[in-house]
Design a protein that fits this description.
Blueprint: H1 3-22, H2 29-33, H3 39-67, H4 70-79, H5 83-95, E1 100-101, E2 104-105, H6 137-146, H7 168-189, E3 193-194, E4 200-203, E5 209-210
Helix pairs in contact: 1-3, 3-5, 4-5, 5-6
């Protein structure tokens, strides 16, 4: 099943879950033909859908990603732009001991959020979970995302509101920094040239030709 199909199924399940939980019914016909009469109604419905669908979809995505191969996860990591899916994929990859895959690496698209308050953390949150309860930062991040994150922090694991639980943000930042340096180095070192007689060579740091480098 493709990620797009999974997303459509998740939204469908979310919609019916919200209808059961909040007794939300579709707006009547006049709500669409006369929007000025229904702006508040549509705003409330949209708020429920955004908050509710995130909490409903995250566990579904997490379970799905657990069943995929590592190569499939890296492929999705490279192509997806959905923030929740990307965050869950990175947590799953890290739980498998993965950090980079050729030119792609954990934190390539997400490390810029580290230390920036992107989500409000006002209001109460329980202290029933601590970062020390988890075996790794990736495990804490996965639990955080499947428990309402990143928009909600019910267990106080992301108090700075950057969407990165516990030490996951620091881990992502370090991994992204190393990945960027490694990729730049490999790209430079692996550049091959063809000589006038058809031989291939690379250029060393001192500027010399290395005919055994390709």
């Amino acid at each position: 099943m493709r990620a797009g199909s999974l997303g459509r199924i998740s939204i469908f399940r979310c919609y019916w879950t919200l209808r059961r939980c909040f007794r939300i019914v579709p707006p009547d016909y006049n709500c669409w033909t006369r929007p000025q009469r229904c702006e508040l109604k549509k705003a409330i419905l949209a708020a429920f859908l955004v908050a509710g669908c995130t909490s409903v979809a995250a566990p579904i995505y997490a379970k799905r990603f657990e069943t995929l191969t590592t190569s499939h996860l890296w492929s999705l990591h490279y192509t997806t732009s959905a923030p929740l899916e990307l965050a869950l994929i990175e947590a799953e990859l890290a739980l498998r001991g993965e950090t980079n895959n050729y030119g792609d690496f954990i934190g390539k698209k997400t490390s810029s959020a580290y230390g920036k308050q992107l989500y409000s953390r006002e209001g109460s949150s329980s202290d029933d979970r601590n970062c020390s309860d988890f075996t790794s930062a990736a495990a804490a991040q996965k639990f955080f995302l499947t428990s309402g994150g990143p928009t909600r922090d019910h267990h106080g694991l992301d108090r700075d509101g950057d969407g990165l639980a516990c030490e996951w943000g620091a881990h992502v930042k370090r991994t992204a920094s190393k990945g960027a340096k490694r990729y730049t180095f490999r790209s430079t070192r692996s550049r091959c040239y063809v000589g006038p007689r058809g031989g291939t060579y690379t250029i060393t740091a001192s500027g010399r030709k290395n005919y055994g480098g390709c």
